[in-house]
Design brief:
Layout: H1 2-19, H2 23-30, E1 33-37, E2 46-47, E3 53-54, H3 56-69, E4 75-79, H4 85-90, E5 96-97, H5 105-110, E6 113-115, E7 120-122, E8 124-129, E9 143-148, H6 152-163, E10 168-173, H7 176-184, E11 190-194, H8 195-202, E12 211-213, E13 221-223, E14 226-228, H9 232-250, H10 258-261, H11 267-274, H12 277-280, H13 286-293, H14 297-304
Helix pairs in contact: 3-9, 3-13, 9-13
Length: 333
Amino acid sequence: MRKSILLGLAVSAVFSASVQADTLADVKKAGVLKCGVSTGLAGFSAADEKGNWKGLDVDVCRAVAAAVLGDASKVKYNPLTAKERFTALQSGEIDMLSRNTTWTLTRDASLGLNFAGVNYYDGQGFMVSKKLGVDSALKLDGAAICIQAGTTTELNLADYFKVNKMKYKAITFDTSDQTVKGFEAGRCDVLTSDQSQLYSLRIKLAKPDDAVVLPEVISKEPLGPVVRQGDDKWFNIVKWSLNAMINAEELGLTSKNIDEKKASKDPAIQRMVGGQGEKLGLDDNWSYNIIKQVGNYGEAFETNVGAGSPLKIARGLNALWSKGGIMYAPPIR
């Protein structure tokens, strides 16, 4: 009996290993990375008038493509609603998800998914019309609130109103664009979402200055890229592609100076731009390609959502740990 059990376990282990996904091989064979993004969220993932996708989440997709394929442009973007995103990843329709998605225990432990890090620390807030005359979320008792379905936002909203003994009427929509249109049309008094989304949605209003984001932040929303469980090699590649962008900013490596800095004798820079690839199943130019073609994390932040963008969001928590924020990456060594 013992021998048969051991044999069964061995066969099971061999079978499991043989069927484990190899996303890296699939991406290399296809010559393109299939990346799930939002249906359009300014600053994070949105297509411009020429159909070119841009944003902080898009740059994570581009970083992975640069690391794996040597070309940040080799990405096929798959716009997904909040309801669709996890199914698309679980089914293999996409290779990774980079779509303002909150890392939670339930999602990490029960959906067959792995979060590969955090590329934006966020929190849920509220946007109201200035005409409403409200300066605090604690004054929203009885309000009609526009909200996107299938998000942690729905759960956080219910918790917040319950704790503060307030009532509300939820007006739900499938996409963030629909929520802002409902808000602008007067279907609700309030729009709630992650604060980053509120700033992105506010610039879509005909009169952005007529709306204000209230001061309360009612949740923790660590947003980051997601992959399927069962493929540790791919999980590591996505994780370290993001870490490379953060480490590059810490070391002062940018898309503009990387060629000059590549000759540096600094061991940390040498490890960053000329090695470690074999451990990930990549060539040694993987991190150089990310920095050269996409830039470091600070460059991506400033261009897409920071001072160099229409959103002009302050770095805040997303500043490096050495500059007052909590953005921190394990060392490449």
